[in-house]
Design goal:
This protein is an all-alpha fold and 48 residues long. It contains three helices and no strands. It comes from Pseudomonas putida TRO1.
């Protein structure tokens, strides 16, 4: 039941990203910060 409480905000956030084409920009910023640290998404994924 608790999972259902979080679903609408996550879906709303996803819809916001998709409608305004923000995902690319957000990922570019994240990749920039990771690049400054000598990391990238591929290597970070294995740490999660």
């Amino acid at each position: 039941m608790e999972e259902a409480l979080y679903e609408p905000p996550i879906l709303n956030f996803r819809r916001l990203l998709e409608n305004h084409k923000l995902a690319y920009g957000i990922l570019a910023v994240i990749n920039g910060h990771l690049g400054d640290r000598g990391e990238d998404c591929q290597r970070m994924r294995h740490r999660w």
